[in-house]
Specification:
- By secondary structure, this protein is an alpha/beta fold.
- Helix content is 46%, strand content 12%.
- It has helices spanning 48-77, 98-106, 108-114, 128-141, 151-160, 164-171, 189-205, 226-238, 249-266; strands at residues 8-9, 33-35, 42-44, 117-121, 146-149, 176-182, 209-213, 239-243.
- The chain has a five-stranded parallel sheet. The chain has a three-stranded antiparallel sheet with strand order 1-2-3, with no helix packed on it.
- It is elongated and about 90 Å long.
Length: 274
């Protein structure tokens, strides 16, 4: 026998009947033994069920650690915890364009390479922000660093920042920047200069950006002034326009919510108290 080899022997290979009926108490498998190459003693091997149990425990610990990192990333990404629940899994199926968001996540590596973003365009309540949140949540689960904010918040942060340049550059540390409700910010020269600054820095860093907007910035009639024109031209260059369906999803959900509330209030009695 080679000294560098450990000879494995099953019970059937062992000449003595001593180990004949040894089975695992947990799974009933026959226990395998190995011969100690120095002493000649037969030592029981770890049962496969124990190996599998230990592997499951390791995976459980790794998943718990991953979930902690996901939670930290979501706290950093969103301003409100309710946005954590805006996921593909929780989608109500009313937005027919949600498939584009799923494709974006599935093809994230290619979009990152191309510096490809999305321009989610639609009226109030059509599901733009939910769609953007779903993308953010799914990418965070994949370990992508995402920040969802608005130009109103960014402008306020720039105003309050002790180092304004450092703050803007720090936004480029995110793999994906999502700007919600573009166009809702003030049209002041100061605000629009900061909006342009952030977008221009993002483009130069070749990092994708997703925006949601009530205005179809893909059309030139939205170029109301030189500042807006410069901003919109850059957004058109890096963001694929996606027009939402006309249905007001929020209104539909509000009607259902109120109907359920009325039903709960009137249960067991008349709502008007008659």
């Amino acid at each position: 026998m080679n000294n560098n080899e450990i000879v494995k022997k099953t019970i059937d290979e062992i000449p003595t009947k001593k180990y004949e009926n040894h089975v695992c108490e947990n799974c009933g498998r026959k226990i395998k033994y190995i011969e100690n190459k120095f002493t000649g003693n037969m030592l029981p091997c770890k049962c496969q069920c124990e190996v599998e149990k230990e592997e499951k425990e390791k995976l459980k610990v790794l998943e718990e650690e991953r979930q902690k990192l996901v939670m930290i990333a979501k706290k950093e990404c969103f301003n409100h915890k309710s946005m954590w629940e805006n996921t593909f899994e929780n989608d109500n199926g009313l937005n027919s364009k949600m498939c584009i968001a799923r494709d974006y996540v599935d093809k994230w590596e290619a979009m990152l390479e191309l510096n490809g973003g999305l321009m989610l365009i639609g009226n109030v309540g059509t599901g733009k922000s939910y769609m953007a949140c779903a993308i953010a949540n799914a990418l965070i689960e994949k370990g992508v660093k995402v920040k969802m904010t608005s130009f109103i918040e960014i402008t306020n942060n720039i105003f309050n920042a002790s180092d304004k340049v450092e703050y803007v550059k720090r936004l480029n540390e995110y793999d994906l920047l999502i700007i919600d409700d573009v166009g809702a910010e003030r049209n002041s020269e100061y605000t629009l200069e900061n909006v342009y600054w952030v977008i221009d820095e993002r483009m130069n860093a070749k990092k994708p950006i997703i925006i949601t907007t009530n205005n179809n910035l893909d059309r030139q009639e939205c170029d109301k002034n030189i500042y807006r024109k410069r901003i919109n031209e850059r957004l058109r260059f890096v963001c694929v326009p996606v027009e939402m369906p006309e249905d007001n999803i929020r209104e539909k959900l509000a009607r259902k919510h109120n109907k359920d509330a009325v039903a709960a209030l009137s249960e067991g009695g008349d709502l008007d108290g008659d």
